[in-house]
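User: My advisor asked me to double-check a structure prediction for FBD domain-containing protein before group meeting. I don't want to rely on an old file, so could you generate it fresh from this sequence?
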Amino acid sequence: MLIYVYISQLTTNVECFTLVFYHFEDSEEYTFPQFAYKNTLLRNLVLSSCQLNPFGTVNWSNLISLSLEDVKLTHGSMKKILTGCPNLECLELKTFYGINLTIEDYRDNKNGPWLEIFAPHIQKLQLLGYCGERRIRQRNVASLVTIVIKAVFRLYIDHDDEEYNLEDFYNEEQQNLEKECRYLKELLHGVAHVENLELGTGCIQDLVARFVDEDEQSRRFETHNFDCSLRHLKTINIIYFHGAPSENKYILPLKKYLLKIVTVLEKVTIDFVKMKQEFLSFPRSSPHVSVVFSHV
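Assistant: Sure, here is a fresh prediction for FBD domain-containing protein from the sequence you gave:
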């Protein structure tokens, strides 16, 4: 009871509040109190290892930064929390669980399982890790300025069938590859208005390198119509290159394509100095773009 009284006093009169618990085996998780979901003074909130289950509506109307770590989130609770934070600028989720854990049998769904992002005030978005069948749709990210894509869109093939042969594998691999390219294309369409785009090499490398024919690699980026003008894109960062330039040739078609279509581009940063000579020879649409090769 004392801890509830203490939190009640704090959350009523503060703008920044951090509540961190250390969860031990067989210990009961702390349940965030219902009265704390209504606070119009809070601006920064950090919660760790506690249960979030608002019964009614959430009113954190002035909250601009929310960090949740090691918490169970359901679709209903997450919707209530985000709906109650209309001015949220920064959302940080670490080691959360509960969402989609009971959803099964999406493999044959022609639309795939969608993850929709509705965050009209968010300015920076990072996508990391393996997405698998997950498809990401931005319903409202009008304020987004920077997006970091280090996610890998990879669909895996089930080899359990004894009659599965090499031809079947090749055909399914090609079908998966087309889907993965389409998933990335859909993602880029949704953020065509951003000023800063950062692509991890795994995002593109994993897709393009699987085209065994080098001419096919170039054709995919140079002749395919992405219908994605990127009218506001000013900065591109491409990071984590390894090996000689010849070993990274599957990335070059993408760079060449971006230089060709982005008309307001101002800066491209690449962390592999040995690619300088070849990269600088590419034609570009923007007369103001500077290319920076970092040595990190």
